[in-house]
Amino acid sequence: MAFLRGPRRVSTAGRWVGVAIGLATLAVGERAWRDFTHARRSTPVAAHGERHGAAHVSDGDSVTIEGTRLRLLGIDAPELAQTCRRDDRGFACGETARTHLAELIASRRLDCVWEKRDKYGRGLARCRAGTVELNAAMVRDGWAVAYGDYEAEEVEARRNRRGLWAGRFEWPEDFRRRERGAAPRHDEVDGEE
Fold first, then answer.
1. Where exactly are the structural domains of the chain?
2. Which of 30, 123, 135, 142 could disulfide-link to 45, CB 3.0 to 4.6 Å?
């Protein structure tokens, strides 16, 4: 029979690990809650229109301006949960793409124009932050692939091994297909070869 010896002591290092895990959990939960409540406030998008103002960046190819959800037309950025590889290490390329889009905007007013909606009701828009055309910049910088437009920018990014093209990645479309249990349409890209 085992005897209880009193309360178990936890090392100082163990306490700090617990605190770090707790803070990380709170940060992830806060971000998820902010994204959830922001998405719920969004308004239906007209078939065509324009929006100007401060933007909330949802991911590498989506923004919200004054409650209107917009997707950048002609590009496809990695999903937030998507990881890629560079130098034999994985990295959160979906998060990196979102961060890059936010840096391109840099708290400037966004000017977006759209002429149609996607199947989720978002306006498919071309957006500018000052003189920067965001759709083209995301592809040129390698943090999105061309999706019907911006082929020349993608060729430039590939040639210069920028962003995603500097490592290995799964096409964002194929990542979404695989998440739904469907077969991918492309081979994985290996820019390190």
1. 43-190
2. 123
The full DSSP string for 169-181 is E--HHHHHHHHTT
85-102: pLDDT as tens digits = 999 899 999 999 999 999
Using the structure block, give the residue that is written with the tokens 């037309």.
Answer: 73
76 CB neighbour count, 10 Å cutoff: 21
Query: Cα angle at 79 between 77 and 84, to 5 degrees?
Result: 85
Cα–Cα dist 91/40, whole Å = 29
| pTM score, whole prediction | 0.74
Q: Does domain 43-190 have CATH number 2.40.50.90?
A: yes
